[in-house]
């Protein structure tokens, strides 16, 4: 069976895979584009630079694009965090407080 399979599939697949296939190339390009776009999605935290971390201190920075969320620098990389519904982040108190601007 192995000999039969390698004979049939080997010749058939080798002749097709060695040719340029625009459909495969387009599909691969689309997948790469989606992965890159999702990795760089603009949630505001991509603009934040985390300060050096100190043991026991979690740096929380206001999101420059959205007052209803903040950026947490626990790992050294800013992570998007959303406040609970109807609250917004206030940097002075370092808490999410009731806000009429945040309806969700």
For the terminal residues, how far apart are their CA atoms?
61 Å
Number of helices: 2
- Class by alpha and beta content: alpha+beta
**Topology, number of strands:** 5
Strand order of the largest sheet: 1-2-3
Instruction: Classify the beta-strand content into a percent band.
Output: 15-25%
Which term fits the overall shape?
elongated
Report mean pLDDT, rounded to a whole number.
Answer: 76
Query: What share of the residues lie within helices?
Result: 25-40%
User: What integer value in Å does the Rg equal?
Assistant: 25 Å
Report low-confidence residues grouped into runs of 5 or more.
36-41
Could you spell the SSE succession in H and E letters?
HHEEEEE
Q: Quick one: biggest sheet?
A: 3 strands, antiparallel
